[in-house]
Amino acid sequence: MAYHRQPLDVLALPTWQALQQHRQAMQHFSMRDAFAANPRRFEQFSLSSCGLFLDYSKNLASDQTISLLMALAREVGLEQSIRAMFDGEKLNASEGRPALHTALRRPLGDKVLVDGVDVMPQVQRVLQQMTELVGRIHSGLWRGFSEKPITDVVNIGIGGSFLGPQLVSEALLPFAQRGVRCHYLANIDGSEFHELAAKLQAETTLFIVSSKSFGTLETLKNAQAARGWYLAQGGSEAELYRHFIAVSSNREAAVSFGIREENIFPMWDWVGGRYSLWSAIGLPIALSIGMSNFKELLAGAYSMDMHFKTAPFEQNMPVLLALLGIWYGNFWDAQSQAILPYDHYLRNITKHLQQLDMESNGKSVRQDGSPVAGATGPVIWGGVGCNGQHAYHQLLHQGTGLIPADFIVPVVSFNPVADHHQWLYANCLSQSQALMLGKSREEAEAELRAKGMGEDDVQRLAPHKVIPGNRPSNTLVLERISPRRLGALVALYEHKVFAQSAIWGINAFDQWGVELGKELGKGVYSRMVGSEQSAAEDGSTQGLINYFRGRHRG
Ligand SMILES: O=P(O)(O)OC[C@H]1O[C@](O)(CO)[C@@H](O)[C@@H]1O
User: Is the ipTM value over 0.95, yes or no?
Assistant: First the structure.
């Protein structure tokens, strides 16, 4: 049965209206003043759970803001939606599927029913299949065509079959075992392929063709190219099974590509691509860090699942982040959200959260097909600190728009070099502090006068030095990156995104918007290579096709 709850007209709810009024009352709210007036603001607006500490005190929020947002969550029935997700209701109504990525991290013995069938035995079987593969590769039992052990694993996949595994395997490099190097091939770009192939030896390389659908153009093209390269490097068709395995829910397509049945790792319709790193899509992670660390990752995500399911909303990290996002997006017109990890190992988290959030919540209609009334998912962007400070933070501090930021920082570095980590951590804190404090005109003028500047110069320069401040941020602190804490961190954002979708009444688990471009791509390609004679429907596309054809003629 498809998810049947009629989305509420959220804008008509009394709490939404109360929030609108409250927003007016908050027009001159000052975070500086709020901290001065309440020495306990930090304690009151922070919490810790699942190895993560969240400071949300630097927000345009008072006690009343938080209690109104909590009331909104209750009024829309968020608790029931959360239960519905964990219970496997078909929340992905447009595709008639549940969204059960949480089943992938549940402990042995739990039961999760999909259409009356307990899926947990399948989940455990695949974990066992992964354990065997990882064991054989790490112990050198799995050998390439020249009988040498595997040293390099190439994950061929895109979107969710790439970003999550890449984030986690690279974030957990300090936990990497036995020298298996992981590489990623995603885009349909010969240069990417060429640069990667130049680093590899076919005889010691294993390719994982990672595609839930096994129908994704980029992945299939890269898999064919990898196969051609492998054959050209001395591999044979007969030994292909030693070098190509697959993760897919489309067994037939993987078999017809030439992958042996026993080397196909199943996944299921009820796991969305961007939520799939916990499944066999996470094989590169497991091959890098080993199965026990992979299970730690799952355990961390499970702890966040339990937190999300059971913690009261006021103490519930995903719910708090979701509501603060709604507060800015729907009531303060914020159109984007910066994700700023202050750690080299977490550098890919922004890219993963881009897909997670934007593919999930970049929607304009609700579950029942009716248009949404207000803003939904924001643009997610950002990157690793301090690099951003010397690039786009200027706009965070003095640009015209309000951009809430999430800072993510570990307290302990894996690689202490002199006092680098102290400085990195200090930079993270000082950025959120600067966003909040800003610099008033008086302060700017006083600063310039203190430098001995004449009054004309003071007046000329002061406006450029003013920083409005009062700009919101959250800071997430981890003691040190570990599989468990990273699992909790990624699951935190998954649940944040879901909670927002439930409040807006949209489907976070489909992605119809990406289909049109794929469809049109076929026609454009045929016109470029000359197999389709009719002109493109618009002059611009046809002109650009002609440009390409002109260059490639003859
Ligand atoms: O794993 P697949 O089926 O190759 O899909 C890859 C990605 O493509 C998308 O379907 C978007 O085109 C994503 O949702 C998905 O993660």
Answer: yes
Which backbone phi and psi does 236 adopt, to 5 degrees? -120, 160
Rounded Cα distance, 103 and 267, in Å: 12
* pTM (two decimals): 0.97
Which SS3 state, helix, strand or coil, does residue 214 take?
coil
Is CATH 3.40.50.150 the classification given to domain 61-90+311-510?
A: no
The phi and psi torsions of 153 (rounded to 5 degrees) equal -120, 130
Cα separation, 491 vs 360, in Å, equals 14
How many helices (H) and strands (E) are present in the chain, helices listed first?
22, 13
Residue with the smallest CA separation from ligand 1 atom 13 is 159
Question: Which is the closest atom of ligand 1 to the Cα of 274?
Answer: 16
CATH code of domain 110-292 = 3.40.50.10490
Residue 533 phi/psi, 5-degree rounding, is -90, -30
Residues with CB under 6 A from ligand 1: 158-161, 211-213, 216, 219, 273-274, 359, 511, 514
Q: Per-residue pLDDT tens for 376-427? A: 999 999 999 999 999 999 999 999 999 999 999 999 999 999 999 999 999 9
pLDDT tens digit sequence for 86-127: 999 999 999 999 999 999 999 999 999 999 999 999 999 999
